[in-house]
């Protein structure tokens, strides 16, 4: 029987892991490529490209069979450009507690496909009605250390919506300019060594405005940052 790789070390305080570099040598995605019409065209006729990463690494719980899940990558069409709608998870959840995530979750048996899962989960988590969402494509699967096979579903979102957050799962929702996230100079590389193993990840720290009007630092990292990096590679190809 083949020997399974050891589980990677858990990261509970990612902001404290040393930064070993950033990617300011890579060009940002051109503003002309970040318009709704340009994105529609890119997904309609995708280039030849390769995702930078397909997963976090070995799973934490090898006895737990991987489950399919979907997340929505909601691109809100604001007057000043597209903005990515993200959530901050509540602190008591079993998986990804307190982390910055796309809205989404585990597939259910009656979901028709990955898109249906993303739309249903988004409506349940943040109250974003499907009538406001125009799905334009998907990105490659991403495998998490918590045993999920995640399909990112990219959509344009009309801005005339009102959110209703599921307070059990979502602490808050906020928006980040897509242009900021598609600029590799804002992508930081972290690396840690523990027990002879190496864990690496990207972060994209963002200072925004919380619901109370005060500045808040949002540490976008892990699977969310990795899927955004794959989105960058798709648009930059």
Question: Briefly, what is this?
Answer:
This protein has 237 residues and is α+β, with helices and mostly antiparallel strands. The chain contains 4 helices and 13 strands. The chain has a domain at 51-181: Alpha-Beta Complex (Nucleoside Triphosphate Pyrophosphohydrolase), CATH 3.90.79.10.
Could you explain how this protein is built, in words?
This protein has a domain at 51-181: Nucleoside Triphosphate Pyrophosphohydrolase. Strands 2, 3, 4, 5, 6, 7, 8 and 9 form an 8-stranded mixed sheet that branches. By secondary structure, it is of the alpha+beta class. Helix content is 17%, strand content 33%. The termini are far apart. It contains 4 helices and 13 strands. The chain has helices spanning 36-44, 114-126, 178-181, 222-236; strands at residues 19-22, 67-78, 81-89, 100-101, 104-106, 133-138, 142-143, 148-157, 170-177, 188-194, 197-203, 206-209, 215-218.
């Amino acid at each position: 029987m083949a020997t399974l790789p050891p589980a990677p070390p858990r990261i509970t305080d990612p902001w404290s892991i040393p930064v070993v570099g950033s990617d300011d040598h890579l060009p940002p995605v051109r503003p002309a490529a970040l318009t709704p019409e340009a994105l529609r065209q890119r997904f309609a006729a995708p280039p030849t490209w390769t995702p930078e990463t397909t997963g976090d690494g070995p799973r934490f719980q090898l006895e737990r069979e991987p489950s399919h899940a979907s997340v929505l990558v909601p691109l809100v069409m604001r007057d000043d450009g597209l903005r990515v709608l993200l959530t901050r998870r509540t602190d008591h959840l079993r998986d990804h507690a307190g982390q910055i995530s796309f809205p989404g979750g585990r597939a259910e048996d009656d979901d028709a496909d990955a898109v249906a899962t993303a739309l249903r989960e988004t409506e349940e988590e943040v109250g974003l009605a499907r009538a406001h969402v125009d799905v334009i494509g998907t990105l490659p699967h991403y495998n998490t250390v918590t045993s999920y096979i995640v399909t990112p579903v990219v959509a344009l979102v009309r801005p005339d919506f009102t959110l209703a957050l599921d307070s059990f799962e979502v602490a808050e929702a906020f928006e980040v300019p897509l242009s900021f996230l598609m600029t590799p100079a804002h992508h930081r590389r972290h690396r840690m060594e523990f027990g002879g193993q190496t864990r690496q990840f990207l972060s994209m720290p963002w200072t925004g405005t919380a619901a109370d009007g005060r500045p808040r630092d949002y540490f976008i990292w892990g699977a969310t940052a990795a899927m955004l990096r794959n989105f960058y590679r798709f648009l930059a190809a």
